[in-house]
Amino acid sequence: MIEGALLDTVLSRVDAGLPVRRAMPVWGRLHIDRPLPFLMVYRRPVDRPDAGTERCVTGTASYLQVTGAPEQRTEVARLIESVSARMSAVFGAFLVVEVWAVPFGPHGVSEACPGFRVIAPADGTLDPTAAELARALGEQRVMRRAPHVETVSSGRVAAAGMRPLLSGAALERCGASLVGLEIEPVYRSEGGTVFPGVHRQVQRAVTTSLDRASYRFSRTRTAVRFAHYHQLSRRSVVRAVFEIDRRLAAIGDAFDVLLQVTPVDAEAAFSAFRRSRYQRMPAFHYRPLPMDPGHLKHQLWAVRTERVEDPTLMYLLREKQVELDRQLTLLADIDSPAFRLGSMLLYRAPDADLVALAERILAAHPRARERGELLLSADEFRALAAAEIAEYRTKAPDFGAPPQVRKDIYTGMLVSKGRLYIGETARIAHSRADSLIQHEIGTHVLTHHNGSLQPLRLLAVGLPGYEAQQEGLAVLAEYLSGGLDPGRLRILAARVLAVDALVAGAEFVDVFRLVRARGFSQRASYTVAARVFRGGGFTKDAMYLHGLVGILRYVREGGEFERLFVGKFSTAHAPVIDELLMRGIISPAAVQPRYLDRGEVRRRLERLRADVTVTDLVEG
Questions:
Q1: Strand residue runs (E) in 404-493
Q2: Residue 194's beta-bridge partner residues?
Q3: Residue 610's pLDDT is what?
Q4: 190-205 residues labelled b (16+ CB within 10 A) or e (exposed)
Q5: Closest CA to 294 of 233, 251, 356, 355
Q6: Whole-number Å distance between alpha carbons of 272 and 278
Q7: Which of 271-288 are b and which e, b meaning 16 or more Cβ less than 10 Å from the residue's Cβ?
C-alpha cells in the first residue's frame, strides 16, 4: 500500500521542481527527472511472468513501475492522478502512456518482425501524439527489421485482464490524457529467457519513440515549447553511470595500443633490411606489456553496463566495453598471426572506394616534388610544439603536457594520453612544422584535454571507433592551416594501398616494392611497410584517408565543425553527441583549435561546405 507519507513526499518534491526517485511498496519505482508533461507507466502482471518489459520505460525521464495487483489499483491510481494534477497545473496538460507486452499465445508474438500497437482514445484528442508515436516506432530498427506498427482508437486503454489506470472522470479531474503502447516481446523466449542484445534494441526504440510522442504532445497540447525532443530526455545521470564510465576509462588508460605496437628498434631494423638488399623482412621488437590483458579482461567484464537505465548511455558504454575487449586481445596477440585478424576487427580493411581514391591520388601526383628546404631536428620541433602548448595554457592552464623526444619512437611522432612524443631521429620540413603541430596538438592533444573536462571520462579515452575521425580531423587541420601538400596526400594514399595489400596476404617485401613502384624513396617505402606490418599487421593506417573522407562529408552535410572537438568520438556518434549536449549531460568543447582564429582558415572551412573532395584539397 502506498502510504500517505510517501505520497506527501513525492508531491512536495514535485511542487518544488525536485527530482523524485522512490521505491514503490510491494514492487516498483517512481523516477521523475524534473517537471515534465508526461509519465510512462508499467504495471507488472500478477498472473504471468513478464521478463524484460519493465525496463522498456526506464530510459525515459519520467516513469512509474508498479505492481498490477488488483488490491493496489486504487492507491496506484491515486498516485498517478495526484502527480498528473500537479504537472497539468504547470504545463496545461499531461500525458500518461502505459506500456505493456502482449502475452504469448495464438494471437501473441509474431515471428515475422517485431510489432507495436498504439492505443489512442476514441475521441481523437490525441491523434497527433498517437500518430507521432506510431511514426517514430516505424522508423526504428529491431534485429535489422522495420517493426510492424498498428494504431487503433479505443474507449478502453489497458492491457488485457487489467482495468484502465484512470477512469474518464479521473482523467478529466487531473487534466491528463492516456495512451497505450502494446509491445510484442521479441526480446525473450516463450520460456522467459531474455535476449540481451534484442532487448537493448527494443528498449532504445521504445525510449526514442516515447520521447518523440511526448514532444509532439507538448507542442500540440501544452503551453511549453521545447526546441527538440531530446530536451525531454533524461538529464540526471545516476551514480552507476559515472562509476561504470570511470571503471571503463581506467581500463582504457591502463594501456596504449599505438605505443605498444610501435617497434622500439625500427631504425636498426631498417639498417638490417638494407643490408639484405631489401629482400628479407626485418625483425621488430616491442615494449613489454605493462599489464596482463587477461587480468584486465576480468576487470572489464565485471563491469555491469546493463545496470544503466539510460539506453543511449548504455549503448555507448556497452560498445566501449566490447572495443576494450578487442584491444586487449590485440595486445595479447602482438607479433603473432592472430594480430592481423584482431586489427581488422578493430580498424577494418579499406573498401573498394577508398582504394580507388588512393589510386586516383597517386595517379594525379605520380611523384613528390623534390624541395631543398630546411629540416628541423626533433629538439627544434619539440620547442615549437612546447611554444604552441604554452599559448593554449594562457587560456587553459592545465592544457596538455610538455612534449618529449624519445629514442624508441620511429614513426616520427605520436600522441599518447594527451602527450606528444617525438622520435629522436625525426627530421621535419620547416614548411610542414606548423601543419603537424595543428595535427598533433590542435587535434589529438586538444580533444584529449576537452574530453578530460567532460563528466564522461570516456570522451578523453575515446568513444568506440573514434580513431578514424581523429585522424581525419587531424589531416584536415593540416589543410586548414595551409600545410597539406601533394606529398602528404601521396603518403596517406600509399598507406591505404599497403593495408589493402596486407589484407590480401602480401608479405613485407611485397608491400615495400608496391610502395617503391609508386615513386617513393627506399626510406619512405620502408616506413610505410613498417607501419603497416608493426605488431603483426596493423590496418589502422588506412584510417587517415578514410577519416578525411568522413570529415569532409560531415562538414559538407552541414555538421557543426566546432562540435567535433568536444572529445574523442566518431562521426557515427555525432547524433549521440548532439543528443547528450541537448540533454545537458555533456558540455560544449572548452577549448577550440587556435588555428580557427586565422582568417584564411575560416575561408578554407567555408569552401568545404561546397562539394569539395579529397583530391580538391591540393593543387598539382
A1: 404-406, 413-416, 419-423, 428-429
A2: 188
A3: 87
A4: eeeeebeebbbbbbbb
A5: 251
A6: 9
A7: eebeeeebeebbebebee
Check residues 1 and 593 and name the one with the higher pLDDT. 593
pLDDT in tens, 226-259: 889 999 999 988 889 999 999 999 999 999 999 9
**Cell 521545447 appears where?**
226
Q: What is the pLDDT of residues 276-311, one digit of tens each?
A: 999 999 999 999 999 999 999 999 999 999 999 999
Please identify which residue in the block is written with the cell numbers 491510481. 77
Please give the grid coordinates belonging to residue 550. Answer: 568522413
Which residue has 516481446 as its cell numbers?
185
Helices 522-533 + 486-503 axis angle, to 10? 50
Q: For the residues 135-162, what does the mean pLDDT come to?
A: 94
DSSP H or E segment with residue 500:
helix 486-503
Locate 272 and state its grid cell.
Answer: 638490417
Output helix, strand, coil percentages for the chain, rounded to the nearest 5: 50, 10, 35
Q: How confident is the model at residue 104 (pLDDT cuts 50, 70, 90)?
A: low
393-444 confidence digits (pLDDT tens): 999 999 999 999 998 887 689 999 999 999 998 999 999 999 999 999 999 9
The answer to whether the CB of 97 falls within 8 A of the CB of 159 is no
CB 79 within 8 A of CB 102: no
Nearest to 258 by CA among 449, 418, 426, 389: 418
- Residue found by looking up cell 610544439 in the block: 385
User: Which residues, 6+ apart, have CB-to-CB distance to 311 below 8 Å?
Assistant: 59, 200, 203, 204, 207, 208
Query: What is the pLDDT, as a whole number, of residue 518?
Result: 95
Are the CB atoms for 282 and 270 separated by under 8 Å? yes
